[in-house]
């Protein structure tokens, strides 16, 4: 069952106008100073909460990449989705915070819901229960929606900073995709069949927004053979059009490694079952 977007506890009493407020007068009172400090504290707590969620999600994807067997991968993924679901259940955490924090909460929470739903679609796709066309449609819908929420989040965050004269913590910079250095070393990734920016971002421990910025992309559309800059530290490009089965491999594990669904692997190799053997050479590209 998918989670519906917009099921947050944020209910705004007034319409928020994201315009910079006038600077505080020089004769600022002690009570006003406390209020400014409250704005900073609430934002720091908010950023810490969501940064922890995103970093935990990233940690689980790393564990999945390192899984040795299908059983291990399934066990990790079950824990991952359980954590993700429980994190989304905490949507009332900021209901008593100032209305602007509630608005920021709504933008980022809705993005997480969309990401969670896409993970469910990915499971169906890898299991051969969802067609490539349907999966691509869900991907486009997800990225379009998340990008729109991200843009609104960044606009609201910038307005909050200007209006309340606060600074962004490292956690907030992380949420704004501003933590990564502009001079980060990069490697080159060649787009292959079935790729999308979301999956490539997870593979290279980065974000879709960061990849788009790094490659000056205006959209999520990719072409087979297209060259993309990716963070060098996580480089693990699969260049071969074949894969040689090794001890402990399963079709599920191979599908995760080469980013091709189990059903597509079976079609490419004219397989009637999931049985494979050590040394077997599988096609992973047409």
From TrEMBL:
Q: Which segments constitute the LysM domain? A: 187-230, 241-284
Please provide the record's keywords in A-Z order.
Signal
Gene3D superfamilies in alphabetical order: LysM domain
Regions that span the bilayer: none
Q: Name it.
A: LysM domain-containing protein
Q: Where is the signal peptide?
A: 1-32
Please give the Gene Ontology molecular function terms for this protein.
lytic endotransglycosylase activity
- UniProt xrefs under SUPFAM superfamilies: LysM domain
């Amino acid at each position: 069952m998918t989670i519906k977007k917009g099921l947050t506890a944020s209910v705004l009493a007034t319409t928020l106008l994201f315009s910079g407020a006038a600077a505080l007068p020089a004769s600022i009172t002690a009570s006003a100073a406390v209020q400014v400090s409250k704005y900073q504290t609430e934002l720091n707590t908010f950023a810490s909460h969501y940064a922890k969620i995103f970093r935990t999600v990233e940690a689980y994807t790393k564990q999945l990449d390192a899984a040795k067997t299908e059983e291990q991968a399934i066990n990790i993924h079950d824990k991952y989705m359980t954590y993700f679901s429980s994190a989304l259940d905490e949507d009332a955490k900021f209901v008593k915070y100032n209305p602007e924090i509630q608005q920021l909460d709504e933008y980022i929470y809705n993005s997480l819901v969309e990401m969670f739903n896409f993970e469910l679609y990915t499971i169906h796709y890898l299991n051969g229960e969802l067609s490539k066309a349907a999966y691509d449609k869900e991907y486009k819908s997800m990225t379009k929606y998340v990008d729109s929420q991200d843009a609104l989040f960044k606009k609201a965050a910038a307005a909050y900073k200007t209006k309340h004269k606060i600074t962004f913590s490292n956690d907030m910079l992380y949420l704004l995709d501003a933590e990564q250095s502009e001079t980060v070393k990069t490697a080159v990734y060649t787009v292959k069949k079935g790729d999308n920016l979301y999956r490539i971002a997870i593979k290279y421990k980065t974000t879709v927004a960061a990849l788009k910025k790094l490659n000056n992309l205006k959209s999520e559309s990719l072409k087979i053979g297209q060259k993309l800059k990716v963070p060098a530290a996580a480089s693990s490009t699969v260049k071969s059009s074949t894969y040689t089965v090794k001890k402990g491999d399963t079709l599920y594990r191979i599908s995760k490694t080469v980013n091709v669904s189990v059903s597509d692997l079976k079609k490419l190799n004219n397989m009637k079952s999931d049985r494979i053997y050590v040394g077997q050479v599988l096609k992973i590209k047409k």
